[in-house]
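Summary for the lay section of the report: proteins are chains of building blocks that fold into shapes. Here we show the chain for Tachykinin-like peptides receptor 86C isoform X2 and then a coded description of the shape we predicted for it.
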Amino acid sequence: MFLPRLEQNFLTVLYSLTTFVSISGNILSIIVFAKGKKCKTDIKPYLLNLAVADLIMGIFWYPFIFILIFKNELASHPVFCTLVSYLQSFSVNMSSFMNVAIGVDRLIAVLFPLKYRITTSRSRPTIALIWLLSAATSSVPLFFIRIEKVNQGGKNHVICISDWENSSHYFIYVWVMSICTSFLPFTMLTVTYAILANFLWKRITPGNENQIRDQLATRAKIKVVKMLFVIVVLFGLCWMPITIAQLILIHKG
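The coded shape description reads as follows.
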């Protein structure tokens, strides 16, 4: 893929910064969640695994997309091609599922605080299930990934492609994964955080009426509602455009 010099320089800086921030930021997050004594939040196990998923994405997604754009090649060795493709899909699926788990966990913690204290240890089976589900859903394309040599502009390029013999099967797989990793998680996060925001907003502070205390409580509620809204919007902005673009491409053949 030929790009003008200015665009190459811009993308080089952009992808370099993105890769550096992604890898270093998630490594620091893992250290804090794993070793930090002051980090005692109930969702620490979820955040730790989310950071691991995002770290895998930072290592096996951005650098190789960068190589693909500039050299029109991706993982020329068959084993490496399979590994990179698998880990890219795995990290995306795990990150999406983990975000949903965090949303559901927070909703249960707020609606059923006493029961939640008894069942906090259930986060481990949930996380294990997410790992297994992510691994299983990412393994399907492994049977169709292969190396192919193509000639473009008089130069030979080695590309890593997903070669499905039956295009309808690929069409179904993409739609199922789009629903499971984008549309359904986005809907679940929207519903869970909407219920959570509504519950927190309507909750009345116990005790006699106190204007200063009630004003502080209202401000705190507004901050929480804004935060929940931002989480849902950012999830949609990060996931939906890519998913919709992929669906448009397969519909166009």
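Put simply, here is one thing we learned. The CA atoms of residues 11 and 66 lie 8 Å apart.
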